[in-house]
Design goal:
The chain is α/β, with parallel strands linked by helices. It is built from 13 helices and 16 strands.
Length: 440
C-alpha cells in the first residue's frame, strides 16, 4: 500500500507511539494498515483541522469522508436529533428517506432525473456491489471492465474489481482491465477514443470466452489510477460500453457531491448519462451512509425477480446525516469553494514546479489534485521515493496528504470541501519547505 507504515520502523518510534502501535497490532491483527512512517494519533477534529492527545494541530488535506469538515455542527445536530427520536430500517414508511431521494434525484439529470430510483446502503463497497449485482441481472452477463489501478471497495465482489489492492488480491474471473486515460503519459487528444477502443476489445474478449459485458465501472476522476481529470474522455467509452450490450456505472464515491468544482457529479464533466450512479464516503460526512441511483428499466426486472433489504442502509439517522450534509454543501456554496480553492492549490504547485524539476505534472479538478513526481522531466521517469518522502515530510509539519497511482509517485491532495485560503496557504508553504529538502 502506498504510504503505509512499515513495521520494520517500529524501533524508530517514541516509546508511547510504539506501545500504541504494538497494542493495535495485537488487538486488530495484520490486515489493518496505518498511514505514514511516523503514524498519527488523533483525538479530535474541527473543520479542516485535527488534534492529537497533546493538542498538536494538523491540517487535513486528505480526508474526503468528512466532506463538509470534521464535526460540522449542522450534521452533528441532525444526527443527534434523529438518534434521539428513532433509528430503524426501511420496511416502515418514513419521510426522511423519501425526502432525501426526492431532493437528490433531479441532480443526476438525464434518465435518472426523469424517473429513476434510489436504493440505500451503508458503504460505497456495498453500493458498488449492489450496482454490479443489478447490472448482471439486467444484462444476463457477468463481465466487468475496470481501469488498471481501480479501487471500488472491499467486499468479495468489489475487491475482485479493485486492481489497486495488488497482485495478492486476485481479480474476478470475468473482470478485465483497460488503461486509465493518462493525460501525462498519453496523447491528450486521443484519450477518450483510445479508452473506448480498449473497452471494445476487452468486451469482445469477454464474449469470445463465453459470456459478455455486464458493466463498465469507473471513478470519473480516476483517483487510484493517478488522478486524471480531462473532461469528456468517458463519453466515447460510454458509447462503446452500450454498443457491447453493457451498462455504464459511474462510481461517484470519491468524485461526487461537488468535489470537482465544475459539476455536482463527476460524470457530468464527461457529458454522459449513466445507467447507475454509486455514492458513498462523503454522503453523510462520516456517518456510514451510501447508495445508488438507477434508471428505471435497469432495475425493473431485478425488483420483480428478487428483493433488496439492508437493515441499516437508509435508516432514519443515516438519512438525517445525508440530508444535513447535502444542505451544508448547497447552503455554504461548497462546490464553488472547491473550484476556487482547487484552482489556487494547482496554481501554487505550478509555481513550485518552476522551482523544482522533480514536479512533472500538476492536474485535477476542484479539490481533487494530483502532483506527479518524476526523476527526469524529459523521460517522465517516476520518482516514487520523492513522493513518499514528501508525504512523510509534510506529516512531520502536521500537514496530511497521501500518494497514489500505479507508479506510486503522485501526491494525492483531497481535502474537505470547506478548505479555506488560510488552509491553502499552510499547505503550499509546508510543501515548499519539504520540497526544498527532498528535491534539493
Amino acid at each position: 500500500m502506498v504510504n503505509s507504515f512499515n513495521a520494520d520502523s517500529m524501533a524508530a518510534l517514541d516509546p508511547a507511539r510504539r506501545a500504541a502501535v504494538e497494542r493495535r497490532q495485537r488487538l486488530l491483527g495484520p490486515a489493518y494498515r496505518l498511514f505514514y512512517q511516523n503514524p498519527v494519533e488523533l483525538r479530535e477534529g474541527r473543520g479542516t483541522r485535527l488534534f492529537d492527545s497533546q493538542g498538536h494541530e494538523y491540517l487535513d488535506a486528505y480526508n474526503n469522508v468528512v466532506s463538509v469538515g470534521h464535526c460540522h455542527p449542522h450534521v452533528v445536530q441532525a444526527v443527534h436529533r434523529q438518534l434521539s427520536t428513532l433509528c430503524t430500517h426501511t420496511r416502515y414508511i418514513q419521510e426522511g428517506i423519501l425526502d432525501y431521494a426526492e431532493t437528490m434525484l433531479p441532480s443526476y439529470g438525464g434518465r435518472i432525473a426523469a424517473g429513476g430510483h434510489m436504493m440505500f446502503t451503508c458503504t460505497g463497497s456495498e453500493a458498488n456491489d449492489l450496482a454490479l449485482r443489478i447490472a448482471k441481472h439486467a444484462t444476463g452477463k457477468r463481465g466487468i471492465i475496470i481501469t488498471e489501478e481501480a479501487y471500488h471497495g472491499n467486499s468479495d465482489l468489489t475487491a475482485g474489481i479493485s486492481a489497486s489492492l495488488g497482485e495478492a488480491s486476485p481479480l474476478g474471473e470475468w473482470v478485465r482491465t483497460v488503461p486509465a486515460p493518462d493525460s501525462y503519459l498519453g496523447n491528450p487528444d486521443a484519450l477518450g477514443q483510445k479508452m473506448a477502443e480498449d473497452v471494445t476489445r476487452q468486451a469482445w474478449h469477454l464474449k469470445r470466452n463465453g459470456d459478455g459485458l455486464a458493466a463498465f465501472i469507473a471513478d470519473s476522476l480516476f483517483s487510484s489510477d493517478g488522478v486524471f481529470a480531462t473532461p469528456g474522455v468517458l463519453k466515447p467509452v460510454a458509447d462503446a460500453v452500450r454498443a457491447a450490450g453493457g451498462l455504464f456505472v459511474a462510481d461517484e464515491v470519491q468524485s461526487g457531491f461537488g468535489r470537482s468544482g465544475d459539476e455536482f457529479w463527476g460524470f457530468q464533466r464527461h457529458g454522459i448519462d449513466p445507467d447507475i450512479v454509486s455514492m458513498g464516503k462523503p454522503m453523510g460526512n462520516g456517518y456510514p451512509v451510501a447508495g445508488i441511483a438507477v434508471v428505471p428499466d435497469v432495475v425493473e426486472r431485478f425488483g420483480r425477480d428478487t428483493r433488496y433489504f439492508n437493515t441499516f442502509g437508509g435508516n432514519g439517522v443515516a438519512m438525517a446525516a445525508a440530508m444535513a450534509t447535502l444542505q451544508v454543501v448547497r447552503d455554504e456554496n461548497l462546490q464553488a469553494n472547491a473550484k476556487a480553492m482547487g484552482e489556487k492549490i494547482q496554481s501554487g504547485f505550478r509555481s513550485l514546479a518552476a522551482r523544482f524539476p522533480g514536479i512533472g505534472d500538476v492536474r485535477g479538478a476542484g479539490l481533487y489534485i494530483g502532483v506527479e513526481m518524476v526523476a527526469d522531466r524529459a523521460t517522465k521517469a517516476a520518482d516514487a521515493d520523492a513522493a513518499t518522502r514528501i508525504v512523510n515530510g509534510l506529516r512531520e509539519k502536521r500537514v496530511l496528504i497521501s500518494a497514489t497511482g500505479p507508479r506510486a509517485n503522485v501526491l494525492k491532495i483531497r481535502p474537505p470541501l470547506v478548505f479555506t485560503d488560510a488552509d491553502v496557504d499552510w499547505l503550499l508553504r509546508a510543501s515548499a519547505e519539504v520540497m526544498a529538502e527532498v528535491l534539493a
